[in-house]
Amino acid sequence: MSNNPAKPIPKVAVESLTGCAGELLVILDNLEKLVPFIRIMSFPFAQSKNEDGPLDIAFVEGSVSQPHDLEKLKRIRAKTRWLVAIGNCAVWGCVQAGSCSRCHADDMMHSVYGDTCKFEVMQAKPLEEFVKVDVRLSGCPINATQFLSVTASLLKDHLPFITHKPVCLECKLRETACVLIEKNLPCLGPVTAAGCGALCPRVGAACYGCWGPCQEPQMEAMATILQEKGYELDDVLSRLQTFGAPKELFTRMASEKN
Amino acid sequence: MSEIERTEIEIPEISRVEGHSAVTVDVENGKVVDVKLEVFEGTRFFERIVLGHKYDEMPHITSRICAICSTGHVLAAIKAVENIFQFSPSETEKLFRELMHLGMIIESHATHICALALPDFVGAADLSDLAGKHENEFAIWTRLRDLGASIQTVVGGRPFHPVNLHAGGLSRYPSRKELRPLLVKLERGTEDAAHLITLLKSFNLPTETELAPCFLALIPEGDSYGYFGKTIKASDGWQAPVEEYTTYLSESSVEYSHSKRSLLGTKPFMVGSMARLFFFSEKLGKTAKDIFDKSPLAQKNKRVSSLWNNFAQAIEIVEAIERATVIIEILLTSTIAGSENTDFKNKLKAGRGVGAVECPRGTLYHSYTLDESGNITAADMITPSAQNSAHIELDIRKAAELELKKAPDHLRSTLETLVRAYDPCNTCATHMVSVRQLK
Question: What is the pLDDT of residues B96-106, one digit of tens each?
Fold first, then answer.
């Protein structure tokens, strides 16, 4: 996006590792807004003629869940200027990583196949466990407006600002009644990153944490409140960890539990 | 002894489908000897992920199996849980759920037909090319997609991974004011869908494999062409309650693919739009029925190529628009009141329940077992793409045999078009199984 005709048009790729393709759909649905300003080198979900070569921006969705994902991620990192992790899977590892806090990938394998089987499986992890990530844009799925503003920033050569304030902030701005206080629902808004527009509380349901943790989430305070509301600690922990919140946030709780 | 001439036709990654898959065809002395559809999507073990979680988390977690059919996963999960609770939703609730589901059918089918399949038929390289050279078709896609997304946003809170649908009922009931604008979009959608039908009719198919698959589909609960039911019907003449799916589907894994595959005993079979239309065309509304009756799909004793699945999906878009209009008109004239779901929690029981729905690509089963506290102790999900995969391989084999004289590039693109017609959803198919590499 440049007024200088001599400047080459930015090259962009949209790639996926292991996920539900939600981010690809959001990008596909907003493609016409981007097409005038970028050249899409590779987007296997939407096009057949995909080229290799240096990139300005690589959007990558999905977690690293198998060696094949890792090889692909390293190839992408090596050829792109900006690497943008899009969606909860790429930023936190989503439900496939959330479950690993309660059971190990190898156990899952063996529970399915028995002990005689040998194949390659990895504990699902987010991108930054393996490579440098320039921008982390969470969401499940990502918010289209956030995605477009991130892209616009990068096309202007500067890193975008993405808020990691809790969902409660968006709830208050919308003047939605608090479902945690007024309906005693197990709402995770206080510890979840905003960006969705507080969708769940808006329809009178509990936020279930799909954006991943907010800045400095007060997990223990959250757990205490939910226990006061009558929820069992095991239930609270399983809800808090479902969408990939890292184990480190729960160390004290885990040690108290044992 | 003469030299055996071996060639391998390989498509390392099928593009313009949901997820990651590859095809290899081995040819010896001019004969196809082996065909493999390899799904190499990473595994996520959903059946294992959900263990220990509460029943009310099932819709949120399982919708992440796949974005484009997330509404189907949510509704299958809800139905499985409600069956354990022996809970029947109100008529209003059922209408909202059906409307939500139709939104998904419209959005998913339109995306598949226009954005993924259409470039093959109009000579466009891909979607960007389509946007530039075929503005009209591109605009049809954006409008139909927006229609499906708007319906799901009004009922479910967002275009996919809905937040408003729960076991026991919606957490908030959309108002008349929110429903009314959908009627305007549906009216426009009627024109767009008609245009899509005309367009698809005019295409020459790149190959005519003629298969007579065994079809499977849920018998619709109501009088209209629908996607919810409790009984499965098969084209070789039997029916069974969905709770018994383990008796008629044998799921197994193959060592070269991350997708499990289901067989009917030992036979490949087909689920999805073609199967549903094969059984239930009589239930279609007038517009869709007329289109169906004039198409090769109506000639039940004539075999038709799976490539007609694109057309079958377009007929379902026409039908979904007509039915969604009827539902909204009913909702606008009735009192919108939900199920009495405030005491849903108190109906908690231990036990097993199965929920099945017809998703865009075919029948989806969710099965859960709950303990007394409402925790999941066992779970199983069988996706449409896993059910179709054995049949896709059969189809690739037939097409490869028919088209073997084509130049390799040409053959590859024909096979890709064929796989794409099934609209395979590899993220769905790979929900738990990984490749076995026996060393």
Answer: 999 999 999 99
